[in-house]
């Protein structure tokens, strides 16, 4: 069981969740890059906010990514190619070849990790390279594996979506540098609300032109 889980995690994908509008902006132009929070603030697209969450994020990112936090994109490890729904209804599955030499994985949501530990220095053992992601997952989740567990249950072990009373729990992926539409392997689209149907249709057409696989759709 333990070895089966490790083997499964070695096939896991980095997935980013965003809104349909944000996904459309990324795929409709060859010049569009996936911007980080800090780049959006610096360019004036997003105003800085003095909320406690944003202030905590500044502290957490300085701890994890000293002097290069504006270069980091965040994702989550997934076995079913669906991301953390809390961050957006559309999941962007990234190509391994586009990130494998510039990505690391982290024990959990790095903001929550830093908050719980009072923003103290990050100890060793909570981060791994992309190619060693199964070791980090095994160290974190071994206690949740059960004898006879079906491999289909591994997805929910690796990523817990959470609920109204419980935060999602997942292994965070940190990607250094830019992400372009050519970095996308596939997308998972949500079931549409009526108001979103025209946008979904346009998005599907654009994805088809780019040869990007759509894992669920209208």
Tell me, briefly, the overall form: globular
- State the helix count: 9
Give the strand order of the largest sheet, numbering strands 1, 2, ... along the chain. Answer: 5-4-6-2-1-3-7-8
Radius of gyration: 18 Å
Uncertain residue segments:
none
The number of strands is 8
Main pleated-sheet profile: 8 strands, mixed
Based on secondary structure, the structural category is: alpha+beta
What string gives the helices and strands in order?
A: HEHHHEEHEHEHHEEHE
Distance between the termini: 36 Å
Proportion in helices: 25-40%
Classify the oligomer. Answer: single chain
Overall average residue pLDDT: 87
Strand percentage lies at: 15-25%
For the structure shown, list the relevant keywords:
single chain, 218 residues, alpha+beta, 8-stranded mixed β-sheet, 9 helices, 17% strand
Write the layout of secondary structure elements.
Layout (H helix, E strand, L loop, with lengths): L1 H8 L3 E6 L1 H8 L9 H7 L8 H13 L7 E7 L11 E5 L1 H4 L3 E4 L3 H7 L10 E3 L3 H9 L12 H5 L13 E5 L7 E5 L8 H14 L2 E2 L4
Parallel strand pairs: 7-8
Antiparallel strand pairs: 1-2, 1-3, 2-6, 3-7, 4-5, 4-6
Helix pairs in contact: 1-7, 2-9, 4-6
């Amino acid at each position: 069981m333990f070895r089966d889980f490790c083997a499964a995690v070695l096939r896991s994908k980095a997935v980013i969740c965003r809104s349909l509008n944000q996904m459309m902006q990324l795929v409709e132009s060859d010049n569009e890059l996936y911007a980080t929070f800090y780049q959006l603030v610096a360019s004036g697209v997003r105003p800085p906010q003095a909320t406690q969450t944003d202030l905590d994020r500044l502290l957490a990112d300085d701890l994890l990514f000293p002097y290069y936090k504006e270069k980091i994109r965040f994702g989550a490890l997934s076995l079913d190619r669906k991301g953390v729904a809390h961050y957006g209804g559309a999941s962007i599955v990234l190509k391994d070849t586009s990130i494998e030499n510039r990505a690391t994985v982290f024990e959990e949501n790095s903001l929550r990790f830093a908050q719980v530990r009072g923003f103290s220095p990050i100890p060793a053992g909570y981060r791994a390279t992309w190619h060693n992601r199964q070791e980090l997952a095994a160290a974190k989740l071994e206690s949740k594996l059960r004898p006879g567990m079906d491999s289909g249950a591994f997805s929910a072990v690796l990523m817990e979506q959470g609920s109204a009373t419980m935060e999602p729990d997942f292994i965070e992926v940190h990607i250094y540098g830019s992400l372009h539409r050519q970095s996308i392997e596939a997308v998972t689209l949500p079931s549409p609300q009526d108001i979103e149907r025209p946008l979904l249709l346009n998005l599907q057409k654009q994805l088809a032109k780019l040869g990007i696989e759509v894992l669920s759709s209208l």
